[in-house]
TrEMBL record:
GO terms for molecular function: ATP binding; protein kinase activity. This is Protein kinase domain-containing protein. Pfam families: LRR_1, LRR_8, PK_Tyr_Ser-Thr. The keyword Glycoprotein applies. It comes from Rhamnella rubrinervis. GO terms for cellular component: membrane. Belongs to the RLP family. It is found in: Membrane.
Amino acid sequence: MNLNENNLSGHIPKEVMGITSLNIYLDLSGNGLTGSIPMEVGMLEHLAVLDISRNKLSGKIPESFGKCTSLIYLYLHENLLRGTIPQSLSSLRAISEIDVSSNNLSGKIPTYLEGFHLLNYLNLSFNDLEGQVPVEGVFKNKSGLSMMGNTRLCGGIPQLNLPRCPSNIYKKRKLSRRTVAVKVLNLQTSKASKSFIAECKALKSLKHRNLVKLITVCSSIDFQQNEFKALVYEYMPNGSLEEWLHPSDSINSGQEQRHLNLIQRVNIAVDVANALDYLHNLCHASLVYCDLKPTNILLDTDMTAHVGDFGLARMLQLAISHPFSSSRQANSSETSSIGIRGTIGYAAPEYGMGSEVSTFGDVYSYGILLLEMFDHRE
């Protein structure tokens, strides 16, 4: 069925996705279609080519795509799709080409894409993906891979010219059977050692029930005589707030569906507010967090919220007067050489125009967080 370039508008009818006899291709590209992709797309189990690119489709990529096991070519580029690349796509073992470029997709690149042996073209460019780029499978072939426009990606093969990943977080179990989170710094990154020392100094003075607790630090030489530095944090068994607000984005199909009731949402909002109040007003020197978002809010066994990920790019000493204390006057020589790298959608707009960081930026991010928690906005 070919309906491309016909100036079609409105939603994609569910009935179209329910034509199970389609076994070659469905092309709706280059129209003005809006709304979300119907969940009924999973009924196209025998379809080989699906092209719904160059429309105005929004929402998330449906999990039901995983049922389209005969797909060879999948084109979703140049739409307004958001959320993460779903885990269910791991069942598309026959896929040869995937193009989801020029959308608003976020999160990490799924590692299952490395195992698609028939995949020879993958275009993820111009989204908001983050984290480490895999290095196996299609990710070894620069000519069949496009990553441009994702400024928070790192690693990958050298030909991609991406920055090195600064650190890795591991879940480890010590001999005492206490589970901890270990952040290992990549010392090949520029100024990583200085960042480690400065971060230790900053974190050791922070003690609050709504901040992730730093247990200890490690600085040593490994068996290959390479320098090794790591931070050991308290482990949060209930994961991040992101996994609870948008469970379909982050949980595997075998896991129980997560849900937060109203009381839990209010308690989490209060916990985060307490953490910000501590950082802004109760520390020895006021601190600006700069990257408040659901992925940086971790939940313990009792669903108490803890603000974590105090990377130095996000934690800066204020160089302004404190409005409530004459003892906190600004030091004109006190500046920071660390650039602000907040998250688009959460960072205050003035940061993008070169304004100095302030506690008001954190308050703005907190407001966006509240909208996401209580008004289901993202």
